[in-house]
Amino acid sequence: MNKAELIETVASELNEPKAQASRAVDAVLRALAEGVKEDEKVNIANFGTFKIKHRKERQGINPATRQPITIPASSTVGFTPAKSLRDTLNGNARAH
Question: Pairing relation of β-strands 68-71 and 58-61?
Fold first, then answer.
């Protein structure tokens, strides 16, 4: 699913125009990004946790020249799904 499909799904679920669903999706994505940036972690119950992962500086090889290079330290975001999401993905969802 891409962002446009997500917006379409949200619009359908809420029975709202796509423009309003787009604003809602954008607001959620901005909030997630800001939350991870400020708190280094965003936990959404029954869905999962977005968390900053820090990568150390490391040695690599330039594939074009085969020369060694230093890859600088960087940060990225990881996602750990909640047990309920893992269960859903694995077909173990409980009936509510």
Answer: antiparallel
